[in-house]
């Protein structure tokens, strides 16, 4: 071994170099990783700072202290039972089935969540349901030794009994307004399911009733208003992140019997167990019909199909954000294409609502941008999830439980940042998950995949909360502590009129216009719009 | 150490494989180290196999430790393989990590597949990398990129030394 090639007589220089060759590679890889992460983080912070969106949850409603509120249940069908459960009252049958289900499947936390729900300090004192089985279920499950639930044959008797401070109305659509008006007149607080009314004239009558009884707390059952992403979405719109919104697309996609209102017919249903005359109310007199009773949503006489049952949810979600109100005009079309089972409400419906003077503010020259179309597109024959999109000149917001924003490739506001490649129109510039106190800018495809599945973050306070519970809690809080609920008569009026315009357009096959100054739907001479809207003759 | 029985080409190939895998591990570890928002929670919660185990380790009390262990593991394995120090230990560590990644989302027929840049059936790149580490475990060549040989000269002295 030659001396000049060895160090300390032990290792040759070649040995040393070969042994240590990994160190520069190590340094290079480390440096590259650190630098890339650092600059990605900086870009993300820059973007969040530029957008300046404040993620927030809706404020909590007030305390539930004081003496218990005495509640009457009017209508204890599918929705009535859900509402009671949201209030903390589950039937014995439901509790037993959930117990069995959670024993079989430990991941089924429905019972646990129900039991952990806050006590709203109320008691159910009265029930009115024209079907004996439903009324008896309420009495059997919700009566206690101190508080026996009383059944009343009619809602008027219930309201006159002096046993209730407030009622929840979950009867068929054609009963919503008559019952709500009677309750308000009797001085009883009202939570009524959507659509607020079944006809145009009722909408005005109910508004008059609420306006002339200002001590009554009135709430329409659009629980989506409690969705935690909404304040964040409002902030996004107020900061003009999306630019001028010209188009909003919402939809319903369902493909099962239950979703098409083909509900079960109870084995005990008969003229002896159902007060048929009471059910019919103001609807055309027809002989006893079990299908009409249990599947009333399929006929205009009692329900209002897609426009009343489901369009109203999507309309109110957007109205809550934009406060765009009643459209200037509405055009609708559709048909019965999947469920030709004797129903007369459409199962495919497309509604275009025009707002030619509405603007969310834009980034282009003043006066260039104005006007918006709201589209509701529904089918009960396919359940592909299409998502809700608010499409602006500068960006598109996908609105669901999560919020995702993509900058538009031709945006004015983001033009420079897109040119500098600081924004990629194919990657979200902002993402918000209401289930966590976290916001995120540029995310990878993988992160988006996990986030979309709602898996990436923990729930707020580790608990999943039912939005119906929050919506009813808000109503109860206003009864106890004052204030106006988020979906009261102004919002309810706009919802009902817009839905009725859609129903009319479908039935008449023409554009229906709104006279904003006179607050009237424009009709042709001699035309009775209400008669057309609730006409139960088959139209396809 | 029998590295001297290999041809130069065989030695070089094994070392190249070791550097590439070390590079990959180190880079993944460093990215996660410098990104405080990173967590394995989503990956674990969406596990399609051995779900109870992965959900358990993604719980609030565990996830911090799991994330730290993962970053430390990735970097340690990467450094070990790149500079040639405790290669066999690094191989075992890497195999354990890859086995966990593989088992959380194995490309088995009938299981939901997450986002992937290719098409896989039973065998995916995690499994192949794992097998490559088994090779390196069997043939831990130190002749180049092998800092350990400085500490243990006699064992690794080349034949022509």
Number of helical segments with 4 or more residues of chain B: 8
Strand content of chain A: 15-25%
The largest pleated sheet of chain B is described as: none
Predict the CATH topology of the largest domain in chain A: Dihydrodipicolinate Reductase, domain 2
Structural Rg of chain B: 18 Å
Tell me the number of strands of chain B.
0
Computed structural class of chain A: alpha/beta
Number of domains of chain B: 1
What would you call the shape of chain A?
globular
Structural class of chain B: mainly alpha
Label the CATH architecture of the largest domain in chain A.
2-Layer Sandwich
Strand content of chain B: under 5%
Order of helices and strands of chain B, N to C? HHHHHHHH
How would you explain this protein's 3D organization?
- The complex is a heterodimer of chains A (540) and B (161).
- In chain A, strand 14 (395-399) and strand 15 (403-407) form a beta hairpin.
- In chain A, helix 8 runs parallel beside helix 9.
- Chain A has an eleven-stranded mixed β-sheet with strand order 17-16-15-14-13-9-12-11-10-18-19.
- The relative contact order of chain A is 0.14.
- The radius of gyration of chain A is 29 Å and the shape is globular.
- Chain A has 18 helices and 19 strands.
- Mean pLDDT of chain A is 90; it is low at 437-443 and 451-462.
- Chain A is an alpha/beta fold.
- Chain A has helices at residues 13-20, 22-51, 78-86, 92-104, 110-116, 132-142, 155-160, 173-185, 200-211, 230-238, 276-280, 290-294, 305-322, 415-419, 445-452, 467-481, 489-508, 529-534, and strands at residues 6-7, 11-12, 69-74, 122-128, 150-151, 166-169, 189-192, 218-220, 245-253, 329-335, 348-355, 372-379, 388-392, 395-399, 403-407, 430-433, 438-440, 512-515, 520-521.
- Chain A is 37% helix and 17% strand.
- Chain A folds into two domains: 69-225, Rossmann fold (3-Layer(aba) Sandwich), CATH 3.40.50; 230-255 and 302-470 and 496-534, Dihydrodipicolinate Reductase, domain 2.
- Chain B has 161 residues and is mainly alpha-helical.
- Chain B has one domain (7-156).
- Chain B contains eight helices and no strands.
- In chain B, helix 1 packs antiparallel against helix 4 (63-83) and helix 1 packs across helix 6 (125-138).
- Chain B is globular and about 45 Å long.
- The chains are: A alpha/beta (540), B mainly alpha (161).
């Amino acid at each position: 071994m030659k001396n000049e090639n060895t160090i300390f007589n032990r290792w040759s220089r070649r040995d040393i170099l070969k042994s240590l060759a990994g160190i520069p590679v190590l340094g290079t890889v480390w440096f590259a990783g650190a630098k890339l992460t650092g600059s990605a983080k900086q870009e993300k912070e820059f973007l969040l700072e530029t957008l300046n969106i404040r993620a927030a949850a809706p404020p909590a409603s007030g305390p539930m202290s004081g003496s218990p509120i005495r509640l009457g249940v009017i209508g204890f069908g599918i929705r009535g039972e859900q509402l009671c459960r949201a209030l903390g009252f589950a039937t014995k049958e439901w509790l037993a089935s959930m117990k069995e289900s959670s024993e079989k499947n430990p991941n089924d936390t429905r019972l646990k969540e129900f039991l952990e729900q806050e006590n709203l300090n109320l008691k159910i004192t009265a029930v009115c349901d024209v079907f004996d089985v439903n009324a008896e279920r309420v009495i059997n499950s919700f009566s206690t030794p101190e508080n026996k639930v009383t059944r009343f044959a009619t809602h008027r008797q219930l309201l006159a009994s002096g046993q209730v401070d407030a009622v929840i109305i979950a009867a068929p659509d054609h009963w919503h307004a008559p019952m709500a008006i009677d309750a308000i007149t009797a001085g009883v607080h009202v939570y009524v399911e959507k659509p607020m009314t079944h006809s145009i004239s009722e909408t005005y009558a109910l508004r008059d009733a609420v306006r002339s009884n200002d001590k009554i707390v009135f709430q329409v059952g659009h629980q989506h208003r409690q969705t935690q992403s909404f304040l964040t979405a409002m902030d996004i719109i107020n900061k003009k992140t999306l630019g001028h919104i010209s188009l909003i697309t919402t939809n319903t996609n369902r493909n099962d019997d239950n979703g098409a209102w083909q509900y079960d017919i109870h084995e005990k249903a008969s003229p002896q167990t159902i007060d048929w005359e009471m059910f019919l109310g103001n609807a055309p007199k027809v002989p006893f019909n079990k299908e009409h009773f249990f599947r009333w949503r399929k006929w205009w006489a009692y329900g209002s199909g897609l426009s009343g049952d489901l369009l109203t949810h999507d309309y109110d979600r957007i109205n809550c954000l934009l406060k765009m109100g009643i459209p200037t005009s509405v055009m609708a079309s559709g048909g019965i294409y999947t469920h030709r089972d004797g129903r007369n409400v459409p199962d495919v419906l497309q509604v275009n609502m025009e707002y030619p003077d509405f603007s969310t503010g834009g980034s282009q020259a003043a006066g260039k941008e104005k006007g918006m179309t709201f589209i509701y597109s529904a089918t009960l024959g396919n359940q592909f999830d299409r998502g809700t999109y608010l499409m602006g000149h500068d960006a598109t917001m996908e609105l669901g439980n999560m919020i995702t924003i993509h900058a538009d490739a031709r945006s004015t506001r983001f033009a420079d940042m897109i040119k500098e490649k600081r924004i990629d129109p194919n990657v979200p510039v902002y993402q918000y998950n209401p289930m966590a106190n976290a916001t995120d800018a540029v995310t990878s495809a993988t992160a988006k995949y996990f986030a979309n599945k709602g898996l990436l973050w923990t729930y707020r306070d580790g608990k999943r909360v039912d939005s119906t519970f929050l919506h009813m809690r808000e109503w109860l809080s206003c009864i106890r502590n004052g204030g106006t609920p988020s979906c009261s008569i102004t919002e309810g009026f706009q919802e009902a009129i817009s839905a009725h315009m859609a129903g009319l357009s479908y039935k008449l096959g023409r554009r229906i216009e709104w006279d904003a100054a006179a607050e009237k739907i424009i009709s042709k001479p001699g035309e009775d719009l209400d008669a057309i809207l609730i006409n139960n003759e088959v139209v396809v | 150490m029998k590295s001297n029985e290999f041809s130069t080409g065989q030695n070089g190939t094994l070392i190249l494989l070791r550097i590439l895998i070390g590079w990959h591990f180190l880079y993944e570890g460093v990215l996660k180290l410098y990104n405080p928002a990173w967590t394995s929670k989503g990956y674990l919660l969406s596990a399609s196999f051995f779900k109870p185990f992965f959900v358990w380790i993604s719980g609030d009390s565990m996830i911090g430790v799991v994330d730290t262990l993962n970053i430390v593991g990735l970097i340690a394995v990467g450094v070990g393989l790149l500079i040639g120090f405790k290669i066999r230990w690094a191989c075992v560590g890497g195999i354990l990590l890859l086995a966990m990644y593989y088992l959380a989302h194995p490309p088995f027929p009938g299981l939901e597949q997450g986002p992937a840049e290719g098409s896989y059936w039973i065998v995916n790149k995690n499994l192949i990398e794992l097998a490559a580490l088994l090779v390196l475990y069997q043939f831990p060549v130190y002749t180049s990129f092998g800092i350990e040989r400085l500490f243990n000269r006699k064992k690794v002295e080349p034949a022509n030394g």
